[in-house]
Amino acid sequence: MKFAKIKYLLLRRICQVSILVLFILGNYSIATLKNVQYKQEVGIFGGNIESLMGDSSSVLAKEPSIFSHIVQGNLSHSSWFGGIFSLTDPLSVMQIFLAGGGLALDVLLGALLVAAIYGIFLGRVYCAFVCPINLVTDFANFLRDKLGFNTAQRKLFISRSTRFVILGLGLLLSALFGVAAFELINPISMLHRGVVFGMGFGIFAVLAVFCFDLFVLKNGFCGHICPLGAMYSLLGKFALLRVKHTLSNCTKCMECVRVCPEPEVLKPIGKQDGILKTMTCLRCGRCIEACDDNALHFSILHFTQKEKK
Ligand code: SF4
Ligand code: SF4
């Protein structure tokens, strides 16, 4: 297999796995504990050992992992390089704000930084390169393709706009009931926390997403339901990183449309030259890898030139 055919897939997997590994290493500490016979024991634990033990007196000493200087926290809020900057999920912040919760300055600044990175430059890249659920849904969709479920008649129709309704509903419910509504059932943070700190009942939410994508609907969760993906789509509507279509190279084979998880993004294929403007594009690069005619590539400059016309 040619490297060009899998280069974005490899990059995506390296980013997703590296981010998970960094969070695992950064959140672990080596602790000396008292056991029941008051002998000392050394163990490695993730997260806040005191709350895990339920009794801080049983923790005799705690040595944070050397990676804790790189990152600590989770995908909702993390502190980087010893607190030089924070990264915060803007959707969590909006829900907490609407629910009437207090927001620390570093949390707010972290959300603004994330909004600026994705809003100005990267668009919905979070979904393709960061989100751990993407590993689950990509696997479900790979199996779906292999098992021939995609050719079976579709039994369920859900509009791709549903995710925007769920986003609005999540914010409304947060304001009405005073709780961060989506966070109560958010499979993304359940999976991330589960991998980093230990999996609990969150595994059922992750399994539900996997089964929904495998048995019910192609690209079901990310393409139709997830409010976080919807938020990053809205946030990155005018982001600079885009996929550009070179009409003169296109042979209209439509391989790109076949592999794209958001096919409506590729409506201009074979018809219109220039950047693809639809906000739901993940910038996953699948269409670029699939194209044998050099008719698609990532572009930043072309977008700015086009907008100036
Ligand atoms: S749509 Fe949601 S679950 Fe899917 S990759 Fe994006 S943030 Fe993750
Ligand atoms: S248009 Fe290309 S980069 Fe965008 S979501 Fe579809 S396959 Fe991914």
TrEMBL record:
Keywords: 4Fe-4S, Electron transport, Iron, Iron-sulfur, Membrane, Metal-binding, Repeat, Transmembrane, Transmembrane helix, Transport. Residues 241-271, 272-301 form the 4Fe-4S ferredoxin-type domain. The keyword 4Fe-4S applies. GO terms for molecular function: 4 iron, 4 sulfur cluster binding; metal ion binding. One of its GO terms (cellular component) is plasma membrane. The chain crosses the membrane at residues 9-30, 96-118, 164-182, 194-217. NCBIfam families: napH (TIGR02163), PRK09477.1 (NF007013). This is Quinol dehydrogenase ferredoxin subunit NapH. The gene is napH.
